[in-house]
From TrEMBL:
<keyword id="KW-0539">Nucleus</keyword>
<comment type="pathway">
    <text>Carbohydrate metabolism; glyoxylate cycle; (S)-malate from isocitrate: step 1/2.</text>
</comment>
<dbReference type="GO" id="GO:0004451">
    <property type="term" value="F:isocitrate lyase activity"/>
</dbReference>
<keyword id="KW-0238">DNA-binding</keyword>
<dbReference type="InterPro" id="IPR009057">
    <property type="entry name" value="Homeodomain-like_sf"/>
</dbReference>
<keyword id="KW-0576">Peroxisome</keyword>
<dbReference type="GO" id="GO:0009514">
    <property type="term" value="C:glyoxysome"/>
</dbReference>
<dbReference type="GO" id="GO:0005634">
    <property type="term" value="C:nucleus"/>
</dbReference>
<dbReference type="Pfam" id="PF00463">
    <property type="entry name" value="ICL"/>
</dbReference>
<dbReference type="InterPro" id="IPR017930">
    <property type="entry name" value="Myb_dom"/>
</dbReference>
<dbReference type="GO" id="GO:0030154">
    <property type="term" value="P:cell differentiation"/>
</dbReference>
<dbReference type="GO" id="GO:0000976">
    <property type="term" value="F:transcription cis-regulatory region binding"/>
</dbReference>
<keyword id="KW-0816">Tricarboxylic acid cycle</keyword>
<dbReference type="InterPro" id="IPR015813">
    <property type="entry name" value="Pyrv/PenolPyrv_kinase-like_dom"/>
</dbReference>
<protein>
    <recommendedName>
        <fullName>HTH myb-type domain-containing protein</fullName>
    </recommendedName>
</protein>
<comment type="function">
    <text>Involved in storage lipid mobilization during the growth of higher plant seedling.</text>
</comment>
<keyword id="KW-0329">Glyoxylate bypass</keyword>
Length: 119
């Protein structure tokens, strides 16, 4: 609703029974200023970047692993069943580091070995 009316707290409060414009504004500001602060302060250590894995299977489309697992849990699956779903998805994703992707791309170039060494 905020996307539709912006900071018109009284309009938003009018749609939520029992809430005042001040309560809505206070909730919004406390909730979303915290989220914004968390986005600004990243806990990703740049020394870890070389170890971060990415999906290299461009044919892998559809639902994310998190969505698949959430749906499986909602359907009552646990333990080994959830692990099998995760293992299957990860094997299909063909995870690699960026460095490994670069090495693979160079190996797949149609150039001489001497030229590959210079790349």
């Amino acid at each position: 609703m905020y996307n539709l009316v912006g900071e018109r707290w009284s309009l938003i409060a009018g749609r939520i029974p029992g809430r005042t414009a001040e309560e809505i504004e206070k909730y919004w500001n406390s909730r979303y200023s915290t989220i914004a602060a968390n986005l600004i302060q990243s806990n990703v250590d740049t020394r870890d970047h070389q170890f971060i894995l990415g999906v290299t299977n461009s044919n892998l489309e559809g639902k994310s692993l998190a969505t698949l697992l959430a749906e499986a849990m909602s359907a009552g699956k646990t333990g080994a069943e959830l692990q099998a779903i995760e293992d299957n998805r990860l094997s299909m994703a063909q995870l690699k580091t960026f460095s490994d992707c670069v090495i693979d791309a160079i190996k797949n170039l149609n150039i001489s070995e001497a030229e590959k060494g210079r790349k």
